[in-house]
Design a protein that fits this description.
By secondary structure, the chain is α+β, with helices and mostly antiparallel strands. The protein folds into three domains: about 50 residues, no CATH class; about 70 residues; about 140 residues, Histidine kinase-like ATPase, C-terminal domain (Heat Shock Protein 90, 2-Layer Sandwich), CATH 3.30.565. It is built from six helices and seven strands, in the order αααβαββαββαββ. The strands form two sheets. Strands 2-4-5-7-6 form a five-stranded mixed beta sheet, covered by helices on one side. A two-stranded antiparallel sheet has the order 1-3. β4 and β5 form a beta hairpin. The structure holds adenosine-5'-triphosphate and magnesium ion (MG).
Length: about 270
């Protein structure tokens, strides 16, 4: 009787020891997996026998896949918007080629450039790996260089100076800023050097405090005529500049001459 009891106790002790060993092994595996996660090596966890960690790794993998799908969809949207705008641009272009009146051709070109400025944003977003922001400096350079080309500016006479520091901004900032630059640089090309043989157009982008961007568009031409009140404009170009600046809560001012210079501050976190 006593020896059977002792035998049972031994057996229970053995299975208890076995259970402790099993738990110790599981604890060691879990600890190793946790350390791997902390060290950023989630891949090292795959294959461990800890069920909770395996679930976490699978969930992380699922989230990663969903994010990739979301990025691909956003890219696709930018691609389609760009293509649709491209069709609109081609239609305007065709109309321009068939138009006899140079005045109407000029108006169509202005319209073409406004739409192209917006299409360029979607093109940049489509090509970039970042989905939520773009490099404003690259985008503005693209717009200005395009304006010089389509207005056939003779760069030996009218020099372009670009001093653009790189800033990542969202599409909500990029489009209004792009359109403002489009309007003001177009004005400099069209109006500043009327009858003046040479000149300089400068576009500068920088920051004073790291939080807000300072954008300057200036030319050393004849200056805006005194009868034009740029703060209460009656013409579409300057009216657009005012409305677009308000849209991004920018502070805009015209710096006293010679020439024409606009200074714009807007937040670019
Ligand atoms: N940089 C500049 N130098 C000289 N005059 C300018 C300059 N910018 C604007 N102006 C004057 O201000 C006027 C108003 O400019 P605004 O851009 O509003 O109209 P616009 O260029 O004539 O036409 P659009 O509506 O196509 O822009 C111009 O017609 C021009 O006389
Ligand atoms: Mg204008």
């Amino acid at each position: 009787m006593t020896s059977r009891k002792t035998g049972n106790n031994h057996h229970r002790l053995d299975s208890l020891k076995e259970e402790i060993r099993r738990l110790q092994t599981e604890l060691a595996t879990t600890r190793a997996a946790l350390e791997a996660i902390i060290n950023g090596r989630a891949d090292a966890v795959v294959g461990t026998s800890c069920p909770y960690l395996l679930k976490a790794v699978e969930a992380e993998e699922e989230v990663r896949k969903l994010l990739q799908e979301k990025d691909a969809l956003i890219k696709e949207i930018h691609h389609r918007v760009k293509n649709n705008l491209q069709i609109v641009l081609s239609l305007i272009n065709l109309q321009m080629q068939n138009e006899r009146s140079s005045e109407i051709r000029d108006r169509l070109l202005i319209l073409y450039n406004r739409i192209r400025t917006m299409a360029a944003v979607h093109e940049v977003f489509y090509k970039t790996e970042f989905m939520s922001s773009l490099n404003l400096a690259d985008y503005l350079e693209r717009i200005v260089v395009h304006l010089f080309t389509v207005h056939r500016v003779d760069e030996s006479k009218i020099k372009l100076v670009l001093e653009l520091e790189p800033f990542q901004v969202s599409i909500n900032t990029a489009i209004p800023v792009g359109l403002i630059v489009n309007e003001l640089v177009t004005n400099s090309i069209k109006h500043a050097f009327d009858g003046v043989p040479t000149g300089i157009i400068k576009v500068k982008l920088g920051s004073t405090d790291g939080k807000s961007c300072r954008l300057v568009i200036e030319d050393n031409g004849k200056g805006v005529p005194p009868d034009i009140n740029w703060e209460n404009p009656t013409t579409l170009g300057l009216e657009m500049v005012k409305l677009l600046a308000a849209q991004i809560e920018a502070k805009i001012s015209k710096v006293d001459g010679p020439g024409t210079s606009f200074e714009i501050f807007f937040s670019c976190p």
